[in-house]
User: Which sequence fits this backbone?
């Protein structure tokens, strides 16, 4: 009997034989909750404030909204006065009716129920003060940054608890990009001193609430992957090919499931052939799936060009199944 999408994803996650190799995200019903929706801004190219007071712009045709932080509109203008300037939104008193109804309609034997928890510690910090000021403050005012991020950590924990009470998610899809396509944004020692212990509390709370913790960071995280294992991150979603993925699989000893590996920007271009797209999908599966616990996908989910995306998905679904059939799991190696 064929596995459901959830069963197949759990087989990969547990290092067992799946029916096919594919994107974990295809097995998850993401529920739009009122906390997430309260921060959405219109796709009109105009400036809008989110619940934290950060200015965002969502340009027509762009994949998402981006913070537009200046010295004039920054929420935190002086990190030594963050307690006066930071206003943490409340997660209470929101209408969960739509989210509850959507979650109740999901057959959990077939799909995971998940929710997107955006604006992690690092992202929220630079959304509040701007990227350059955040870099400066992490280096020169670490105590103040740690104190401010502790308050944000407490907020994220309240989000997890409130969401668990209403829709009982199987998975939290937690967003916090820690780097670029070239490196981490912060020196690893700074990340370990400030971000790591606070993020560990968030991860532990998710586990206490019965959730799989899937961390999205479509960037370089290679310098801290062993730390990610240490603090209990279950799945790293967004693993770009610029990371040395086989090395990461080796040093994490199979303890960190990963989603990604297909070089999206490489195949989401004009004047590319169908075979070149298919070849990149096969390369990722052939290279990364042998170590196990790997979900091949484009780190940001899709190609934005429709034709490219159709070819990518077709090859992923076809070759992901062929690979599973032709490469049965060695039960002695998980």
Assistant:
């Amino acid at each position: 009997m064929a596995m459901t999408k959830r069963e197949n994803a759990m087989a990969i996650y547990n290092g067992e034989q799946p029916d096919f190799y594919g994107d974990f995200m295809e097995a998850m019903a993401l529920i739009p909750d009122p906390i997430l929706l309260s921060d959405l801004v219109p796709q009109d190219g105009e400036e809008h404030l989110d619940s934290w007071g950060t200015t965002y712009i969502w340009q027509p045709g762009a994949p998402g909204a981006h913070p537009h932080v200046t010295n004039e509109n920054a929420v935190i203008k002086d990190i030594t006065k963050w307690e006066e300037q930071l206003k943490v939104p409340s997660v209470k008193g929101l209408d969960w009716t739509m989210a509850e109804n959507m979650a109740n309609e999901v057959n959990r034997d077939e799909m995971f129920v998940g929710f997107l928890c955006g604006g992690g510690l690092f992202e929220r910090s630079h959304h509040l003060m701007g990227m350059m000021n955040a870099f400066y403050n992490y280096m020169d005012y670490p105590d103040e940054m740690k104190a401010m991020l502790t308050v944000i950590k407490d907020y994220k924990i309240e989000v997890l608890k409130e969401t668990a009470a209403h829709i009982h998610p199987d998975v939290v899809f937690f967003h916090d990009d820690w780097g670029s396509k070239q490196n981490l944004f912060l020196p690893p020692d700074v990340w370990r001193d400030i971000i790591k212990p606070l993020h560990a509390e968030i991860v532990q709370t998710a586990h206490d609430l019965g959730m799989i913790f899937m961390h999205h960071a479509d960037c370089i995280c290679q310098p801290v992957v062993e730390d990610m294992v240490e603090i209990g991150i279950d799945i790293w979603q967004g693993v770009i090919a610029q990371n040395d993925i086989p090395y990461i699989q080796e040093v994490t000893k199979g303890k960190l499931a990963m989603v990604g590996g297909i070089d999206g920007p490489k195949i989401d271009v004009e004047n590319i052939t169908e075979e070149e797209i298919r070849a990149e999908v096969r390369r990722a599966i052939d290279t990364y799936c042998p170590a196990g616990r790997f979900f091949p996908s484009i780190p940001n989910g899709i190609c934005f060009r429709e034709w490219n995306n159709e070819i990518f998905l077709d090859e992923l679904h076809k070759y992901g199944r062929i690979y599973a059939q032709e490469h049965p799991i060695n039960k002695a190696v998980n």
Remarks:
- The chain has a mean pLDDT of 96.
